[in-house]
Amino acid sequence: MTYRIVIDKPQCVGHARCANVAPHLYKLDENGYILAEGFDVPQGEELAAFRGSKACPERVIKMFDEDGQEVRRSPTAA
Length: 78
Ligand code: F3S
Prior knowledge:
19% of the residues lie in helices and 17% in strands.
């Protein structure tokens, strides 16, 4: 199973919790706002990506599976 992270970047208010959970996946700009609008989750990073997405209190970050379904439960590593 492959996953994609989709980020509603304009809604980011800079909580930085995503980056605290998974700094290697969720990079912030110099003002503390998320940089990317999305990315394909690298193999082995599924759990970190999911946890980072759930850490955002604004629900800015969502994770989808390859069928386009939002991932709502913690995925197991592929
Ligand atoms: Fe922004 Fe949410 Fe991360 S508000 S910096 S996407 S925790």
